[in-house]
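[Discussion] Sanity-checking designs against the backbone

I'm trying to build intuition for which residues belong where. Below is a structure token string of 280 positions. I'd appreciate it if someone posts a full sequence so I can compare it with mine line by line.
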């Protein structure tokens, strides 16, 4: 675990430094409330691991990893506003703590800081921008054109969850100056892993014990969100099998990078294995 903790530490230190430089102070405090309130930092870790697997240095990928984490946090602020969720990661959500207007400004601020970190590399800007377009289309779909079958659900999961994971891995490969084929393979790995993550998340929300899960359950049904359980006719076991299939495809894509046998590649493989069996 020291291997991952060191890399997580790189992300945390840079994240704190970026937010500390934000002006005015009031905005900096709002951004810190969102971005420093916890989180597993899975996406920036994917960025760093992809970079190292592609024979780059972890330090070269930190800014891109922090950038994708800021994009992710900006999207969570908007999710909480839409759902009127009062808590996030065990603390007050941004709109609860500061109000709707400041929360939206905080989301904009997070995106601004993120794209500043991408701005020196055109390929990074393209990867991040494409993920934002997909994410925005996913958010809109969830609100006004909810899926009604498995194929439409998978498209939504790809946009809402898979797209940012794809960008995270692509950014790591770009930081390592990998060739386009390798960048694409890392992107497919992460996108499919992200979709598997979302499917498993939906199943846990519908079936897990709230105390074991560490957060309220049945939220998708109560909020009328289109989870795999709500939209398809799949049983939880069948949905888990679908997640497993996506994870297997993610590992196949990772194999195409030619890096799966490296230490970072092993961690990426383990992550794809873990997302479909996690209990929280």
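Best answer:
Here's mine. Compare freely.
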């Amino acid at each position: 675990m020291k291997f991952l903790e060191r890399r997580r530490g790189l992300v945390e230190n840079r994240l704190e430094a970026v937010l500390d430089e934000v002006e005015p102070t009031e905005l900096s405090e709002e951004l810190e409330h969102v971005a420093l309130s916890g989180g597993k930092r899975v996406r920036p870790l994917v960025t760093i691991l992809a970079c190292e697997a592609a024979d780059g240095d972890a330090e070269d990928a930190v800014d891109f990893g922090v950038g994708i984490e800021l994009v992710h946090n900006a999207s969570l602020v908007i999710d909480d506003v839409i759902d009127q969720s009062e808590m996030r990661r065990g603390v007050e959500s941004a709109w609860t703590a500061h109000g709707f207007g400041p929360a939206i400004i905080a989301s904009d601020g997070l995106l601004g800081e993120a794209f500043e970190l991408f701005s020196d590399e055109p390929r990074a800007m393209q990867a991040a921008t494409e993920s934002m377009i997909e994410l925005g289309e996913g958010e809109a779909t969830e609100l006004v054109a909810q899926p009604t079958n498995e194929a439409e659900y998978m498209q939504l999961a790809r946009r809402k969850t898979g797209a940012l994971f794809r960008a995270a891995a692509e950014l790591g490969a770009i930081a390592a100056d990998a060739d386009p084929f390798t960048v694409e393979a890392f992107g497919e790995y992460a996108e499919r892993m992200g979709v598997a993550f979302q499917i498993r998340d939906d199943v846990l929300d519908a079936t897990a014990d709230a105390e074991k899960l560490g957060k309220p359950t049945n939220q998708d049904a109560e909020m009328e969100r289109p989870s795999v359980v709500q939209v398809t006719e799949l049983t939880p076991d069948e949905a888990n099998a679908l997640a497993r299939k996506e994870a297997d495809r993610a590992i196949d894509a990772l194999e195409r990078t030619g890096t799966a046998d490296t230490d970072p590649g092993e961690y990426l493989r383990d992550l794809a294995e873990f997302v479909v069996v996690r209990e929280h």
